[in-house]
């Protein structure tokens, strides 16, 4: 692979790291490592300013260094504190003040670097280049790269490192906002509890008006607005308005006119933080945010919140989730009222309840006197996309799913809950995993498409009476199967279908076989395979197969213990970038 291709590849990987993480401190070393793989400087460090304090700089990233890393060790997560004007040379002051890149080719010849010559001797560098980290026109820190006499730094290398500096600045910005996002997630979780309670009352009391009043109040709270209204324009609810507070009561006509205008827009939702500049609506409000309620391609209403202090993209994202939950709850209510064939979904597919119950099953399920299901999950982040769920359909069948939603954070959280709720319901409606997977995709495709994610999965139904396992593979890794002789069973490789959420009409098939003579069926997500050592080599499928062959007779605790040892030996550490999830259908 050419150097240009490598740069592009690593730039994409760094961009993905930044996009998927909400904590710069968790990915900072990985970013620098990826950058230094493809440019001549083999050493770099990052310093940050906190709370607009330019008197002090904090060294937060120095893993690629030697003397500096050993000499300046921090016990504080903020990094090693330095006096910026006393401890750093003049040219770094200039780079920060004038927001420009400064390249000192030889610190022993340039008078601006006289202060760091002792350090250069200890760290063994000759040249140094500084990149200010800037976002919102403000310098939040700086990255410096160290060069020895043999290093050649071309213009394209400087451009590349500059682009990485921009991504680092973005990651710092995301991190600073993370506390706000955590607050938003907490608000969403609290709201989901309220939604769940409102939905429960809807099924008990059959009062759609009361339900929507509750939802209107939740919309107000979740966006920190002074008022909110929900208008439903569908069937017997046509043009009904439900509000949490009465600030807009005197302008009902304007409210309806405004909502009709919003429904006519070609966007699903938006927010305006200064109505003096964007005077489209006739209501006397300072700010507003709205999101349409949609059933498939039909707009059936809108949620409108007004007079929040300042709306942001996060508010719009959360309101979009709330709007979907309103729509789903109303659909389930309609199903219940009409007593159609999907009445079971209206009863069981309580997505709203599932949102705050993201804890997996107990770690062991005894299937029969021979076989048991056990799993181990080590999340890399608080909210990830790997999950496992099992459910006893009856005395003779256990259904279970292992899946990986491509994404992290609140979107993965949300989609995991949706899949779990739908999976449990469909287990009762359909007998084969292929049918379950097909209808799971059909039910959830629109939501996957809107969120821009998909999921790989192994969906399974185990006949505990006959020891027959049926598997439907939705773009996932096939199980590792061991026979009584301790050999890999290669002939039962499960045929792959496409991941869930990729095509609206995807069809999935079942692979059925007896596991009477197979003491281990081992399933997993890609986190284990993608663990890398210092040479960027992945742990890989072959190593995992050999591990399973060597450990299939052990109990779960011993298998997990040995897997930890094996991966830590391979990497030299116990910090991994992705979730690790394994599932074992094994002999007792």
UniProtKB/TrEMBL annotation:
Nucleotide-binding in keyword set: no
The UniProt record lists the keyword Hydrolase: yes
Sorted UniProt keywords: Hydrolase
Matches recorded under InterPro entries: Bact_Sigma-Reg (IPR052016), DUF3369 (IPR021800), GAF (IPR003018), GAF-like_dom_sf (IPR029016), PPM-type-like_dom_sf (IPR036457), PPM-type_phosphatase-like_dom (IPR001932)
UniProt domain PPM-type phosphatase: residue ranges: 370-587
Single GO term (MF): phosphatase activity
SMART domains (alphabetical): PP2C_SIG
Stored SUPFAM superfamilies: GAF domain-like, PP2C-like
PANTHER family for this protein: STAGE II SPORULATION PROTEIN E, STAGE II SPORULATION PROTEIN E-RELATED
Annotated protein name in UniProt: Sporulation protein
